[in-house]
């Protein structure tokens, strides 16, 4: 049984729904699974666009064979060498020893490192074309979206963009394949989580890629993960433009680290005051409970970020420190920041969050709210000021 599908007259699609894997790249949780897409164009010449993760689907090679319908596989076009897409290359090359592997010089460097030296390589340059007969392909280099070798292929005949990881998402395909067959609200969060955690660090390169694609009459987008965009490709391009230019929604994510509940109480108090001031989108997370990928997702989503930490060995709480280090690494920009925390003797949480604020360069909306011990009545003033300042900046 095979969920094969035709994207066009001559373009075949398959997708492996991986609901077994717990962690993508052995770090990012996959509660809704993930899918690996692969496409085959059967034309006068036949070309396969990427493969799938090794061993993720025992029938993948059969799908290639059935889609070819007795024809030879002329080209294997590699848009991205990460192993969730290149894992079946070795099997395919054994099965189709005459296949020509199409990629760029960086593709081949990684290919050799993973699978040894290969013959039958066709190295393409940015803007090169390849005619399959009916379909005329053009290669568009999009380096660092999100690896150095990443590129896309634009089918100039039918306006189909094979986009690699770009425009992909976490989440297995639960029935629908196309953007018009699903309730996208279900996928949007997983798409942003994929973007923010996997691609977001390279947002300036995404902007360059989008600028490059602007002149292409894209009718369909075929990414390597998730939905095929045939009805509203502009929607997903718009989302990528928004996320890669750090445009946040008018909302706030409050993230706290708390050992015995004092900092947690401050978090809820500040969140309540922000909501009372009229901000509707407010989310609160405990850094010890919620996986960092969801925290980063919400930080990418909302303009307002409020971070709170208890002191821990004169530092921030370790998991909050980990989050701040990751944010610096990812280079998230243009957020409004509020800081709060508690201490019992010498402090360290708020002090180090203030140092983080300086390093990342976000606008700090108000002086940090810091409380010694229990946040009992009478100690609210700095929290009130922080909440009011955050709400004013968002609603103003
Ligand atoms: Fe879907 Fe970068 O691999």
Automatic annotation (TrEMBL):
Residues 252-391 form the Flavodoxin-like domain. Gene3D superfamilies: 3.40.50.360, Ribonuclease Z/Hydroxyacylglutathione hydrolase-like. It comes from Alistipes hominis. InterPro entries: Flavodoxin/NO_synth, Flavodoxin_CS, Flavoprotein-like_sf, Metallo-B-lactamas, ODP_dom, RibonucZ/Hydroxyglut_hydro, Rubredoxin-O_OxRdtase. Its cofactor is FMN. This is FprA family A-type flavoprotein. The lineage of its organism: Bacteria, Pseudomonadati, Bacteroidota, Bacteroidia, Bacteroidales. In the N-terminal section; belongs to the zinc metallo-hydrolase group 3 family. CDD domains: flavodiiron_proteins_MBL-fold.
